[in-house]
Amino acid sequence: MAMAMARPCAFLLFFLVLFSYDGSGPGSSRRTRRSGVAQATQRVFLYPQAPKVSSIVSSKYRTAYHFQPPKNWINDPNGPMYYNGIYHQFYQYNPNGSLWGNIVWAHSVSTDLVNWIRLAPAIERTTPSDINGCWTGSATILKSGRPAIIYTGADTEKRQVQNVAFPKNLSDPYLREWVKPHDNPVIQPVGRGLNPGQFRDPTTGWIGPDGLWRIAVGAEVDGHSAALLYESEDFVRWDRVDHPLYSSNASAMWECPDFFAAMPGENSGLDMSAAVPDGAKHVLKMSLDGSDKYMVGVYDLKGDAFVPDTVIEDRRLWSRIDYGNYYASKSFFDSKKGRRVIWGWTNETDSSSDDVAKGWAGIHAIPRTIWLDKDSKQLLQWPVEEIESLRGKQVRHQGLELRKGDLFEIKEIDTLQADVEIDFELTSIGSADPFDPSWLLDIEKQCREAGASAHGPFGLVVLASESMEEHTSVHFRVYYRSQEKHMVLMCADLRKSSLRPELYTPAYGGFFELDLEKEKTVVSLRTLIDRSAVESFGGGGRVCIMARVYPAALVDDGGTRMYAFNNGTSTVRVPRLEAWSMRRAQVNKG
C-alpha cells in the first residue's frame, strides 16, 4: 500500500471556472427522453467560434462493458428475467437505424450479467395489435414455471393495447422463439376517461389477495396519472379492477411503472410471484419528467391497492432512482442469488445528426442490486458483484490528505475504463454551512451555483485533458442540518466535459443524509468510467448519478487523466483510495 501526499493544484484556475460557470452557451441544449413513444428531439443553438475538435464519429466513444448492441437505436430495457440458468435481457430496438422508430424487442442472453450473446429479435411487428410498434413490457414466471411476456403494442389505429407472448420451445435454453396467441390484444384501452394514446408499459405480474394474477399498466385517466390494475387467472384473459393500484393528480402520465416488494434493511430480493412475508414494504416506481421516481409504502391486501407511507404533492420532491441520465428502468427478482436487479436506459446527449453519423445511439446502465434501507425511507443501489470480474490492474493509496486546491493524480491504470472507490473523511464538520430545504426543489441549480465552502467541493475528476480544458467532476458538498445529521450534496458536473458544441452538459445532483453517530464523517464514492459513460454511487448507493460525456481528449492521442481533489477550505483526508483498470466485456458480439 502506497502512502502519499497530494501535490498542490497546478490547475486551480480551472476549478474556479468550473464552480462559477452559469450553464449558458454550449451544453445548454437537452435531449428529451421518452419511453418508446416519441422520437428524441433536439433544440438547436448557434455556437460562435466553436472549437475545432476531432469528429464525434469514433468507435472510442462506444462503451467497453456497458450493455449496447453493435449498431442502431436502443432504449428501454424490457422483461429482464432469470430462467433455467440464463439471464435474459430484452430491449427496445430499431433494427433499421440509429433514431427511434420501427421498434421491436431485441434479445440477448448471459450467464453472468456482464458478457452477452445477441440473438434474433424475440418480438417483432407482425400482427394487427403490434404492427406500429412492440413497445415496453415485462416478463413473469408463471406458477407452472413457464415464462410469459406482456407488452404494449401500437395497433392499426395507433391505439396502445397490451399483448402477451410465450416461448415456443421451453427446451431451448435461450428461448429464441416466442409465440403470440390469437387472443391478442388481451387488454384494450377502454374505460371512462382513459386516453388510448397514453396506456402502456405493463408491469411484471404478482399474486393478489385472491390468488389471481395482477399487473399494473401506466395510464392517463381524466388528464391525471394512474397505474391501472388488472387481474387474471391464466395471464391471457384480463379484467380491469374497479380502482387503480395508485393514482396521482400531480402528473399527467406515468411511463414504465414497476411494482415490487422489499424487506427493510435486507439486501436480498423478494419474488412477487410468491407469498410476500410479513413486514415487507412495497415500492411503486414510475418514469416521468425525464427521470425515474418512486414511492415506498404498503400493498393493502384488503383494499388491493398501494398506499404510500408519505404522500408528497410536489413531484419535484419525489425520490429518484438515479439523479442523472437514467430512464425507463425495469427490475426483476434474480432467483439465482436471491436479489432484485434493476436496469435503466441511458440515451446519448449529442445531437440526432451525430447519432445518424455514428450509426448507434443509447446504452443501458450497469445492472444494479437494489434494496430498501432499514428505515424504509429510500432505495439503495450498487453495481452487481459480477462486474468486479472485469477488474484488472489495481492501484491503492491510503492516508492521503487533500488541502485546499490539492489534486492527487491517480496513475498507472486505464483512465478510460476504470472502477474507482474513494472514502473521504472530513476534519472539521462543525463549520459546515447550513442546509436550505428549498434547494431540494432544484438540486441541479444548487450544483451549478454553489461556491467553494469549508466542506466542498471535494471528489473525483475523470476524463480530463492534460490542460484541464475538458474534465468531468463528481464531487460532494456537506451542509449542516442538525447536531447529528448533515446533508451531503453529490454532483456530477458535465459543464466542462467536452469542447464539442451542441452537447447537453448539465450539472446533475442529489442529496443524501449523513448520520454522524453511525457513519462518523466519512463520505464514500464509487465511480465506473467506461469511455462515454460515467456512473457514480455516493454514500453507499444512496445517490446514483449516470452521465454521458464526449471529451475530444478521449479520441485524441493525448489521452485522459484522473484526480482526487479538494477545493474546499478545510482539509479532507482520504483513508482509502482503490482503483482498477476494467477489461472489455463481450457484449452482443454474436
TrEMBL record:
Q: Glycosyl hydrolase family 32 C-terminal domain: from which residue to which, for each copy?
A: 386-581
Enumerate the Gene Ontology biological process terms: carbohydrate metabolic process
UniProt entry keywords in alphabetical sequence: Glycoprotein, Glycosidase, Hydrolase, Signal
PROSITE patterns associated with the record: GLYCOSYL_HYDROL_F32 (PS00609)
CDD domains named among the record's database cross-references: GH32_Fruct1-like
List GO molecular-function terms, semicolon-separated. Answer: hydrolase activity, hydrolyzing O-glycosyl compounds
Q: Does the keyword Glycoprotein apply?
A: yes
Which residue range or ranges hold the Glycosyl hydrolase family 32 N-terminal domain?
66-383
Looking up Gene3D superfamilies in the UniProt record yields:
Exo-inulinase, domain 1, Glycosyl hydrolase domain, family 43
Q: Superkingdom of the source?
A: Eukaryota
So which residues are the signal peptide here?
Answer: 1-24
- Annotated Pfam families: Glyco_hydro_32C, Glyco_hydro_32N
Protein's UniProt keywords contain Signal: yes
Q: Which residues form a coiled coil?
A: none
Enumerate the InterPro entries for this protein.
Answer: ConA-like_dom_sf (IPR013320), Fructan_Metab_Enzymes (IPR050551), Glyco_hydro_32 (IPR001362), Glyco_hydro_32_AS (IPR018053), Glyco_hydro_32_C (IPR013189), Glyco_hydro_32_N (IPR013148), Glyco_hydro_beta-prop_sf (IPR023296)
Q: Which family does it belong to?
A: Belongs to the glycosyl hydrolase 32 family.
Q: What is this protein called?
A: Beta-fructofuranosidase, insoluble isoenzyme 4
Organism in which the protein naturally occurs: Zea mays
